[in-house]
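If it is no trouble, might I ask you for a protein's amino acid sequence along with its backbone structure tokens?
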Amino acid sequence: MDLTKKQQEIEFKLNSYKALYEEVKSARNKYVNLIQNSSQDLAELKERIKITENELEILKNEASEKEKTLKKFEGYYQDELHKRDKGHAELNKLEYTRRQKKEKINLNTIEDKRKKLLINKLMRLRNRI
């Protein structure tokens, strides 16, 4: 009877140890799966980082090219502004000269009219005498 009881205790312990073994085995498998998943996620993230770094490099190159183009066009723009300003200055100069000449013409016209009136008066006076 003692042996049967001892056998039952040993079987009970054995079943307990089997359950613990299965529990540990299950936990180990769970952690192995988690490690594999984490490793796979890490590899995917590293790949994404490489892709992102390549895209960033491409975008930096494009930005650099666009900045060079912008500076080039800014130079052209400044040249065109300078030409426009020179043209405006020349136009203002010519407009000033035109106004002066027009004023002179107007003064000459007024002077001519005054002289004609004077001549007409003198002619009338002469005709009276």
Observations:
- The helical segments are 2-128.
- The two ends are 182 Å apart (CA to CA).
- Residues 87 and 93 are 10 Å apart (CA to CA).
